[in-house]
Amino acid sequence: MSKTAQIKVDDKEYVLPVMVGTEGEKAIDTRTLRATSGYIAYDQGYGNTGSCESSITYLDGDNGILRHRGYPIDQLAQNSNFGETAYLIIYGELPNPTQRRTFGDLLRQHAAIDPQMQAILQGYPKSAPPMAMLSSLIAALAAYYPHLATNNFENDLKNFDLAAAIAISKIRTLGAMIYRYQNGLPYNPPKDVPFCDNFLHMMFSELYKDFVPSPEVSRALNTLLLLHADHEQNCSTSTVRMVGSSAANLFTSLSAGICALSGPLHGGANTAVVQMLQSIHDEHDDGTRFIAAAKSGSKSNRLMGFGHAVYKNFDPRAKIIAKACDDVLNKLGINDPLLAIAKNLEQAALKDDYFLSRKLYPNVDFYSGIIMRAIGIPENMFTVMFAIGRSPGWVANWREVAANPKGRIYRPRQIYAGPVKRDYVPMAQRG
Ligand code: SDX
Question: How far is ligand 1, taken at its centre, from the CA of residue 272, in Å?
């Protein structure tokens, strides 16, 4: 007899099924609640609501656990790389040598950007926000590859492998292209080198001198992108699923995800953290004054890079990035004062009841910007890096929606709180 939940309202009792996931997560299935009781469930921001069953990523926020297809994030960060983890997240299994080579070949074959598409950039002011340019350029892929973006689940799934490789490879190249354009530098065509090295080449190579990253920089970028690859039903991934549920194609759905990620409470936080650290440094504060202000609770004074909607313990990614930070800066001989301030803030906050009582710990964004600075990536590109890293997760979630035979268009309900019925007032009678 499967478990059920009983709800008693208006002297009537309703029995609802209970769902239990493979990791023991429990849910009350409220899909019949409105039809049987006339009530909907209400959960502003969906923080306590499951929108789907997914097999991609498991998060345990209370215990700081993150696994992709069952593999713990620390093992993937230690042993895998971005390309292999992207394959795992999308296809569900670690690739064998042939699968890994085929996937890598597809990513390299589709790394370049069509000259006509390069011309789109000329239409933007050089000062335009990179995420605004990236979201529109990714949406434009649907125009350049209409046969892969038919807005028909069956057709688009048939071409999924190619569309997925194009999306992941081109988000990376477009990111570098936007950087070059904003700095008045020519587009660097991709080379036949690994994914991350190609990105760094396309960002930093000059006409007569190819940029060849040190092994430390290459490894750090790989780890950074890998750690961002997927993260359950976060704001941008839920957005990709929401848009994909209307049968919108992969590129269009990814463009919506990029828009959601650009917000400072989500993917924009890595930029906000470095700006916060820089302002603390410029004000000759060791962080003490800032921490006091951050406890005011106002959204504009927050300790950016701290707190998380799910983790009420350390974000496991933050620990890995903090260590990678030390490694890269030591190996590159960089002494970034912002790292010392970040460590001060972390130590102070982790002893402060305001943060401890609210279970606010460093999240993925707290140290990631410092690594990107060390690699030479400018602040306004940090969220673009997040998008490049998150692209496999978005692709995998879009595929789950498209391939779900019992899937439905996302259409939440609401509780109306506006004016009740009233009659039209002609202009002559208005005050
Ligand atoms: C990402 O969802 C994901 O998985 C996202 C992500 C991913 O990989 O996709 O992990 C990436 O988005 C990481 C989060 C990046 N954002 C930031 O670092 C911005 C700073 N953090 C916060 O704005 C906040 O913590 C959120 C948005 C991350 C989470 O917000 P919640 O869970 O809705 O928390 P809340 O706003 O309800 O705050 C609860 C309390 C409040 O205080 P009280 O009203 O109880 O007195 O905690 C306080 C808040 O004022 N608070 C903070 C704080 N975060 C929450 N106070 C100071 N500094 C902070 N950072």
Answer: 13
Q: Where in the chain is the domain with CATH 2.20.28?
A: 4-50
230-246, pLDDT tens digit by residue? 999 999 999 999 999 99
Confirm or reject: Cβ of 302 under 6 Å from ligand 1. Answer: yes
**7-59: pLDDT as tens digits:** 999 999 999 999 999 999 999 999 999 999 999 999 999 999 999 999 999 99
Decide if 304 contacts 269 (C-beta within 8 A).
Answer: yes
Q: What is the architecture of the domain spanning 269-375?
A: Orthogonal Bundle (1.10)
45: left (phi over 0), alpha (psi -120 to 50) or beta: left
Instruction: Of 396, 376, 378, give the one whose Cα is nearest residue 91.
Output: 396
Q: Is any atom of ligand 1 closer than 6 Å to the C-beta of 300?
A: no
Exposure string (b/e) for 380-398, b if CB count within 10 Å is 16 or more?
A: ebbbbbbbbbbbbbbbbbb
- Does domain 4-50 sit in CATH 2.40.10? no
**Strands 26-28 and 12-20, sheet pairing:** antiparallel
Q: Tell me, what amino acid is at 48?
A: N
45 CA closest ligand 1 atom index: 33
- The answer to pTM > 0.90 is yes
Find out whether the beta carbon of 261 lies less than 6 Å from any atom of ligand 1.
no
Which active-site residues does the annotation give?
Answer: 308, 365
The CATH superfamily holding the domain 73-265+378-403 is Citrate Synthase, domain 1 (1.10.580.10)
DSSP state of 229: S
Residue 416 φ/ψ region, left for φ over 0, alpha for ψ in the -120 to 50 degree band, beta for the rest: beta
Sheet containing 4-9: order of strands: 4-9, 12-20, 26-28
23 exposure class (CB count in 10 Å sphere: 0-12, 13-18, 19+):
exposed
